[in-house]
Amino acid sequence: MNSIVKPLLFILFLQLLSGSAYPQKDPGKDSRCDKVFRISGPRADGNGTWTSEVTLQIACNDFKQEDIPKQLSSEDKNYDGYNYKRIAPPTWTSNCAGRVFEKLFNKGPMTWNATEFEDKLLVWFGEKIYNPRENLTWGDVRPGDVVIYRKEGKPKHVAYVDDVIKNLGMVTDVIIESKADEESVFLHPIGLTENMFDPLKHNYGDIYIYRINTEKLRIEDISPKCECPKTLESQTLKVSNAKPEIVYTSDILEDGADYLIEASGTVSDWDTKNPEGVDACYCYIKWRCPNPEPWGQLLFDDKSMHQIKGSTIPYTESHNYSVHYKGTGKKMKIHCYDAIGSSGDNSGFFTVIITKQR
Hints:
The chain is an alpha+beta fold and 358 residues long. It folds into 2 domains: 8-29 and 229-356, Jelly Rolls; 32-221, no CATH class. The chain has helices spanning 8-17, 68-79, 96-105, 114-125, 199-204, 305-309; strands spanning 32-42, 49-59, 85-88, 126-130, 146-151, 154-167, 170-179, 185-191, 206-212, 218-221, 234-240, 247-248, 258-264, 266-268, 278-279, 282-283, 293-294, 298-300, 321-326, 333-336, 347-356. Strands 3-8-7-6-5-9-4 form a 7-stranded antiparallel β-sheet. Strands 11, 13, 14, 15, 19 and 21 form a 6-stranded antiparallel β-sheet that branches. A hairpin with a 2-residue loop joins strand 5 (146-151) and strand 6 (154-167). The longest helix is centred in the N-terminal third of the chain and has 12 residues, at 68-79.
Protein backbone atom coordinates (compact mmCIF):
# COMPACT_ATOMS: atom_id res chain seq x y z
CA MET A 1 0.00 0.00 0.00
CA ASN A 2 1.13 3.57 -0.64
CA SER A 3 2.26 5.35 2.48
CA ILE A 4 -0.67 7.74 2.53
CA VAL A 5 -2.12 9.29 5.61
CA LYS A 6 -5.84 8.63 5.44
CA PRO A 7 -7.79 10.55 8.02
CA LEU A 8 -11.24 11.39 6.73
CA LEU A 9 -10.68 14.96 5.58
CA PHE A 10 -7.52 14.05 3.70
CA ILE A 11 -9.02 11.09 1.87
CA LEU A 12 -12.04 13.14 0.87
CA PHE A 13 -9.68 15.66 -0.62
CA LEU A 14 -7.89 12.90 -2.52
CA GLN A 15 -11.18 11.58 -3.81
CA LEU A 16 -12.00 14.94 -5.31
CA LEU A 17 -8.64 15.03 -7.05
CA SER A 18 -8.97 11.51 -8.39
CA GLY A 19 -12.53 11.80 -9.67
CA SER A 20 -11.45 11.72 -13.32
CA ALA A 21 -8.27 9.68 -12.96
CA TYR A 22 -9.94 6.40 -13.84
CA PRO A 23 -12.49 7.14 -16.57
CA GLN A 24 -15.26 4.57 -16.88
CA LYS A 25 -18.23 4.19 -19.19
CA ASP A 26 -21.17 5.61 -17.27
CA PRO A 27 -24.01 3.12 -17.59
CA GLY A 28 -26.23 5.65 -15.88
CA LYS A 29 -26.60 7.48 -19.18
CA ASP A 30 -29.30 5.02 -20.15
CA SER A 31 -32.22 7.10 -18.91
CA ARG A 32 -32.91 7.55 -22.62
CA CYS A 33 -32.95 4.95 -25.37
CA ASP A 34 -32.45 5.55 -29.08
CA LYS A 35 -35.07 5.32 -31.80
CA VAL A 36 -33.66 5.25 -35.33
CA PHE A 37 -35.76 6.11 -38.38
CA ARG A 38 -35.00 5.96 -42.09
CA ILE A 39 -36.71 8.75 -44.03
CA SER A 40 -36.66 8.71 -47.81
CA GLY A 41 -38.34 10.55 -50.63
CA PRO A 42 -37.97 13.30 -53.24
CA ARG A 43 -35.65 16.16 -52.39
CA ALA A 44 -37.30 19.55 -52.00
CA ASP A 45 -34.91 21.09 -54.57
CA GLY A 46 -36.07 18.62 -57.22
CA ASN A 47 -32.67 16.96 -57.62
CA GLY A 48 -33.66 13.33 -57.26
CA THR A 49 -34.33 11.50 -54.03
CA TRP A 50 -32.63 11.33 -50.65
CA THR A 51 -32.50 9.02 -47.67
CA SER A 52 -31.65 10.15 -44.14
CA GLU A 53 -31.23 8.08 -41.00
CA VAL A 54 -32.14 10.02 -37.90
CA THR A 55 -31.73 9.11 -34.24
CA LEU A 56 -34.15 10.45 -31.65
CA GLN A 57 -34.38 9.54 -27.99
CA ILE A 58 -37.17 8.22 -25.80
CA ALA A 59 -36.87 9.63 -22.29
CA CYS A 60 -37.36 7.11 -19.51
CA ASN A 61 -37.68 9.67 -16.71
CA ASP A 62 -39.91 12.69 -16.33
CA PHE A 63 -40.78 15.40 -13.83
CA LYS A 64 -41.86 14.37 -10.38
CA GLN A 65 -45.25 15.77 -9.55
CA GLU A 66 -43.84 17.86 -6.72
CA ASP A 67 -41.40 19.59 -9.11
CA ILE A 68 -43.98 20.68 -11.67
CA PRO A 69 -45.30 23.76 -9.78
CA LYS A 70 -41.79 25.21 -9.60
CA GLN A 71 -41.32 24.63 -13.33
CA LEU A 72 -44.66 26.26 -14.13
CA SER A 73 -43.82 29.26 -11.97
CA SER A 74 -40.50 29.71 -13.77
CA GLU A 75 -42.20 29.60 -17.16
CA ASP A 76 -44.88 32.08 -16.09
CA LYS A 77 -42.21 34.58 -15.10
CA ASN A 78 -40.29 34.05 -18.34
CA TYR A 79 -43.25 34.46 -20.69
CA ASP A 80 -45.33 36.96 -18.74
CA GLY A 81 -46.57 39.79 -20.96
CA TYR A 82 -45.67 38.19 -24.29
CA ASN A 83 -48.90 36.38 -25.26
CA TYR A 84 -47.97 32.74 -24.70
CA LYS A 85 -50.82 30.28 -24.11
CA ARG A 86 -49.92 26.99 -22.42
CA ILE A 87 -51.60 24.00 -24.11
CA ALA A 88 -49.63 21.09 -22.63
CA PRO A 89 -47.68 20.68 -19.37
CA PRO A 90 -43.90 20.55 -19.00
CA THR A 91 -42.19 17.24 -19.67
CA TRP A 92 -38.73 15.82 -20.28
CA THR A 93 -40.16 13.29 -22.75
CA SER A 94 -40.17 15.80 -25.61
CA ASN A 95 -38.38 18.96 -26.72
CA CYS A 96 -38.61 21.40 -29.60
CA ALA A 97 -37.35 19.22 -32.48
CA GLY A 98 -38.89 16.10 -31.01
CA ARG A 99 -42.27 17.81 -30.75
CA VAL A 100 -42.16 18.99 -34.37
CA PHE A 101 -41.08 15.52 -35.52
CA GLU A 102 -44.11 14.11 -33.69
CA LYS A 103 -46.42 16.65 -35.36
CA LEU A 104 -45.01 15.84 -38.81
CA PHE A 105 -44.82 12.05 -38.61
CA ASN A 106 -47.11 11.14 -35.69
CA LYS A 107 -44.26 9.41 -33.86
CA GLY A 108 -43.35 10.28 -30.31
CA PRO A 109 -42.99 11.74 -27.81
CA MET A 110 -39.24 11.86 -28.28
CA THR A 111 -36.35 14.31 -28.05
CA TRP A 112 -34.03 15.49 -30.80
CA ASN A 113 -31.77 18.47 -31.38
CA ALA A 114 -32.34 21.40 -33.70
CA THR A 115 -29.03 21.00 -35.55
CA GLU A 116 -29.75 17.41 -36.59
CA PHE A 117 -33.33 18.36 -37.46
CA GLU A 118 -31.94 20.87 -39.95
CA ASP A 119 -29.00 18.81 -41.24
CA LYS A 120 -30.80 15.50 -41.70
CA LEU A 121 -34.37 16.54 -42.45
CA LEU A 122 -34.85 20.17 -43.38
CA VAL A 123 -31.88 20.52 -45.75
CA TRP A 124 -33.15 17.68 -47.94
CA PHE A 125 -36.91 17.74 -47.62
CA GLY A 126 -37.68 21.33 -46.60
CA GLU A 127 -39.03 23.83 -49.13
CA LYS A 128 -38.14 27.40 -48.16
CA ILE A 129 -41.26 29.50 -47.53
CA TYR A 130 -40.07 32.53 -45.58
CA ASN A 131 -36.64 34.13 -45.14
CA PRO A 132 -36.52 37.42 -43.18
CA ARG A 133 -33.68 38.66 -45.40
CA GLU A 134 -35.54 37.96 -48.65
CA ASN A 135 -39.26 38.33 -47.93
CA LEU A 136 -41.27 41.38 -46.91
CA THR A 137 -44.44 39.33 -46.28
CA TRP A 138 -45.20 35.91 -44.84
CA GLY A 139 -46.09 34.71 -48.31
CA ASP A 140 -47.68 31.28 -48.51
CA VAL A 141 -47.19 30.22 -44.90
CA ARG A 142 -49.66 27.49 -43.89
CA PRO A 143 -50.53 25.41 -40.85
CA GLY A 144 -48.16 22.43 -40.71
CA ASP A 145 -45.09 24.40 -41.82
CA VAL A 146 -41.88 24.27 -39.80
CA VAL A 147 -40.30 27.25 -38.06
CA ILE A 148 -36.55 27.38 -37.49
CA TYR A 149 -35.01 29.99 -35.22
CA ARG A 150 -31.42 30.78 -36.19
CA LYS A 151 -28.83 32.76 -34.28
CA GLU A 152 -25.51 33.62 -35.92
CA GLY A 153 -26.45 31.26 -38.73
CA LYS A 154 -26.97 28.24 -36.47
CA PRO A 155 -30.30 26.51 -35.75
CA LYS A 156 -31.30 27.05 -32.14
CA HIS A 157 -34.98 26.17 -31.91
CA VAL A 158 -37.68 24.41 -33.92
CA ALA A 159 -41.42 25.19 -33.80
CA TYR A 160 -44.56 24.25 -35.73
CA VAL A 161 -47.08 26.47 -37.49
CA ASP A 162 -50.42 25.79 -35.82
CA ASP A 163 -52.48 28.43 -37.63
CA VAL A 164 -52.30 31.67 -39.59
CA ILE A 165 -54.30 34.90 -39.34
CA LYS A 166 -55.25 36.58 -42.60
CA ASN A 167 -56.45 40.06 -43.44
CA LEU A 168 -57.71 40.80 -46.97
CA GLY A 169 -56.33 37.45 -48.10
CA MET A 170 -52.81 38.08 -46.78
CA VAL A 171 -51.19 36.38 -43.79
CA THR A 172 -50.60 38.98 -41.08
CA ASP A 173 -49.71 36.75 -38.14
CA VAL A 174 -48.49 33.21 -37.69
CA ILE A 175 -49.55 31.15 -34.65
CA ILE A 176 -46.76 28.76 -33.71
CA GLU A 177 -46.67 25.82 -31.34
CA SER A 178 -43.41 25.91 -29.41
CA LYS A 179 -41.78 23.68 -26.79
CA ALA A 180 -38.37 24.70 -25.48
CA ASP A 181 -36.47 21.82 -23.86
CA GLU A 182 -38.43 20.50 -20.86
CA GLU A 183 -40.88 23.41 -20.84
CA SER A 184 -44.61 23.37 -21.48
CA VAL A 185 -46.03 23.54 -24.99
CA PHE A 186 -47.20 27.06 -25.87
CA LEU A 187 -49.18 28.69 -28.64
CA HIS A 188 -47.70 32.06 -29.56
CA PRO A 189 -48.54 34.57 -32.32
CA ILE A 190 -45.58 36.00 -34.21
CA GLY A 191 -45.67 39.01 -36.50
CA LEU A 192 -43.33 40.27 -39.20
CA THR A 193 -42.02 42.84 -36.75
CA GLU A 194 -41.33 40.66 -33.73
CA ASN A 195 -40.52 42.27 -30.38
CA MET A 196 -36.77 41.84 -29.90
CA PHE A 197 -37.41 41.16 -26.20
CA ASP A 198 -39.87 38.35 -26.90
CA PRO A 199 -38.37 35.28 -25.14
CA LEU A 200 -38.12 33.11 -28.27
CA LYS A 201 -36.78 35.94 -30.42
CA HIS A 202 -34.33 37.04 -27.73
CA ASN A 203 -33.04 33.53 -26.95
CA TYR A 204 -33.04 31.90 -30.37
CA GLY A 205 -32.76 34.57 -33.04
CA ASP A 206 -34.48 35.11 -36.41
CA ILE A 207 -37.38 33.11 -37.85
CA TYR A 208 -37.21 31.02 -41.04
CA ILE A 209 -40.11 28.93 -42.29
CA TYR A 210 -40.05 25.74 -44.38
CA ARG A 211 -42.55 23.19 -45.66
CA ILE A 212 -41.98 19.45 -45.48
CA ASN A 213 -44.41 17.41 -47.58
CA THR A 214 -44.62 14.31 -45.43
CA GLU A 215 -47.15 12.70 -47.81
CA LYS A 216 -44.30 12.16 -50.28
CA LEU A 217 -41.91 10.74 -47.67
CA ARG A 218 -41.51 7.20 -46.42
CA ILE A 219 -40.53 6.71 -42.79
CA GLU A 220 -39.34 3.38 -41.37
CA ASP A 221 -38.49 2.49 -37.78
CA ILE A 222 -35.18 0.62 -38.11
CA SER A 223 -34.06 0.80 -34.49
CA PRO A 224 -33.50 -2.19 -32.24
CA LYS A 225 -35.99 -2.67 -29.44
CA CYS A 226 -35.95 0.40 -27.26
CA GLU A 227 -36.22 -0.55 -23.62
CA CYS A 228 -36.02 1.83 -20.71
CA PRO A 229 -33.83 0.64 -17.85
CA LYS A 230 -35.44 -1.14 -14.92
CA THR A 231 -35.34 0.43 -11.48
CA LEU A 232 -33.53 -1.37 -8.71
CA GLU A 233 -35.55 -2.98 -5.94
CA SER A 234 -32.83 -4.87 -4.06
CA GLN A 235 -29.39 -6.24 -4.86
CA THR A 236 -26.46 -7.81 -3.02
CA LEU A 237 -22.98 -7.15 -4.41
CA LYS A 238 -19.42 -8.14 -3.54
CA VAL A 239 -16.84 -5.40 -3.95
CA SER A 240 -13.23 -6.52 -4.09
CA ASN A 241 -10.40 -4.70 -2.34
CA ALA A 242 -7.83 -6.97 -3.99
CA LYS A 243 -8.54 -5.93 -7.59
CA PRO A 244 -8.85 -2.50 -9.23
CA GLU A 245 -12.42 -3.04 -10.29
CA ILE A 246 -15.54 -0.91 -10.33
CA VAL A 247 -18.89 -2.56 -9.69
CA TYR A 248 -22.22 -1.22 -10.94
CA THR A 249 -25.72 -2.10 -9.84
CA SER A 250 -27.67 -4.13 -12.38
CA ASP A 251 -30.44 -1.53 -12.64
CA ILE A 252 -30.79 2.20 -12.11
CA LEU A 253 -31.72 3.67 -8.74
CA GLU A 254 -35.03 5.45 -9.19
CA ASP A 255 -34.49 9.19 -9.25
CA GLY A 256 -35.33 10.66 -5.85
CA ALA A 257 -36.28 7.32 -4.28
CA ASP A 258 -34.97 6.38 -0.84
CA TYR A 259 -32.51 3.48 -0.78
CA LEU A 260 -30.83 1.84 2.20
CA ILE A 261 -27.18 0.93 1.69
CA GLU A 262 -25.77 -1.72 4.04
CA ALA A 263 -22.07 -2.56 4.00
CA SER A 264 -20.25 -5.30 5.92
CA GLY A 265 -16.89 -7.04 5.92
CA THR A 266 -13.26 -6.17 6.58
CA VAL A 267 -10.26 -5.84 4.28
CA SER A 268 -6.55 -5.10 4.42
CA ASP A 269 -4.59 -2.47 2.56
CA TRP A 270 -1.24 -4.03 3.63
CA ASP A 271 -1.62 -7.81 3.86
CA THR A 272 -2.58 -10.09 0.95
CA LYS A 273 -3.54 -12.98 3.26
CA ASN A 274 -5.28 -11.47 6.28
CA PRO A 275 -8.17 -9.16 5.39
CA GLU A 276 -8.17 -7.18 8.61
CA GLY A 277 -7.67 -3.59 9.67
CA VAL A 278 -10.08 -1.63 7.50
CA ASP A 279 -13.86 -1.76 7.21
CA ALA A 280 -16.23 0.21 5.02
CA CYS A 281 -15.93 3.35 7.16
CA TYR A 282 -12.90 3.03 9.46
CA CYS A 283 -9.27 2.06 9.86
CA TYR A 284 -9.12 0.14 13.14
CA ILE A 285 -5.90 -1.93 13.13
CA LYS A 286 -3.88 -0.91 16.19
CA TRP A 287 -0.42 -0.57 14.63
CA ARG A 288 -1.78 1.86 12.00
CA CYS A 289 -4.73 3.44 13.77
CA PRO A 290 -4.40 3.21 17.58
CA ASN A 291 -7.90 4.60 17.76
CA PRO A 292 -10.42 3.94 14.98
CA GLU A 293 -10.07 6.61 12.30
CA PRO A 294 -12.91 7.51 9.90
CA TRP A 295 -11.77 6.55 6.41
CA GLY A 296 -13.60 6.39 3.09
CA GLN A 297 -12.48 2.98 1.86
CA LEU A 298 -15.77 1.96 0.24
CA LEU A 299 -17.17 4.52 -2.19
CA PHE A 300 -20.65 4.83 -3.67
CA ASP A 301 -20.77 7.12 -6.70
CA ASP A 302 -17.38 8.41 -5.48
CA LYS A 303 -18.74 9.27 -2.03
CA SER A 304 -17.94 7.58 1.28
CA MET A 305 -20.75 6.55 3.61
CA HIS A 306 -19.71 9.46 5.85
CA GLN A 307 -20.18 11.87 2.94
CA ILE A 308 -23.54 10.39 2.00
CA LYS A 309 -24.78 10.77 5.56
CA GLY A 310 -23.35 14.27 5.84
CA SER A 311 -21.60 13.50 9.13
CA THR A 312 -19.21 10.94 10.62
CA ILE A 313 -20.83 7.55 11.14
CA PRO A 314 -19.94 6.08 14.55
CA TYR A 315 -17.48 3.17 14.61
CA THR A 316 -18.85 -0.28 15.38
CA GLU A 317 -16.92 -3.45 16.17
CA SER A 318 -19.41 -5.44 14.11
CA HIS A 319 -18.10 -3.57 11.06
CA ASN A 320 -21.64 -3.32 9.73
CA TYR A 321 -22.79 0.11 8.55
CA SER A 322 -25.85 1.52 6.86
CA VAL A 323 -26.87 4.82 5.33
CA HIS A 324 -29.81 6.16 3.34
CA TYR A 325 -29.16 7.30 -0.21
CA LYS A 326 -31.35 9.19 -2.68
CA GLY A 327 -31.53 7.59 -6.12
CA THR A 328 -30.13 9.53 -9.07
CA GLY A 329 -31.87 7.86 -12.00
CA LYS A 330 -28.58 6.10 -12.84
CA LYS A 331 -26.84 2.88 -11.96
CA MET A 332 -24.74 3.17 -8.81
CA LYS A 333 -20.96 2.91 -9.09
CA ILE A 334 -19.17 1.17 -6.19
CA HIS A 335 -15.47 0.59 -5.62
CA CYS A 336 -12.73 0.45 -2.98
CA TYR A 337 -10.62 3.57 -2.88
CA ASP A 338 -7.24 1.95 -2.21
CA ALA A 339 -7.82 -0.85 -4.73
CA ILE A 340 -7.84 1.62 -7.61
CA GLY A 341 -4.12 2.12 -8.19
CA SER A 342 -2.71 0.26 -5.16
CA SER A 343 -4.23 -3.21 -4.97
CA GLY A 344 -1.01 -5.23 -5.07
CA ASP A 345 -0.78 -5.74 -1.30
CA ASN A 346 -4.52 -5.68 -0.59
CA SER A 347 -6.96 -8.43 0.33
CA GLY A 348 -10.61 -9.01 1.19
CA PHE A 349 -13.96 -7.77 -0.07
CA PHE A 350 -17.06 -6.00 1.17
CA THR A 351 -20.63 -7.20 0.94
CA VAL A 352 -23.06 -4.47 -0.05
CA ILE A 353 -26.85 -4.70 0.08
CA ILE A 354 -28.88 -1.94 -1.59
CA THR A 355 -32.63 -1.94 -0.93
CA LYS A 356 -35.32 0.43 -2.09
CA GLN A 357 -37.39 1.68 0.83
CA ARG A 358 -41.18 1.80 0.76
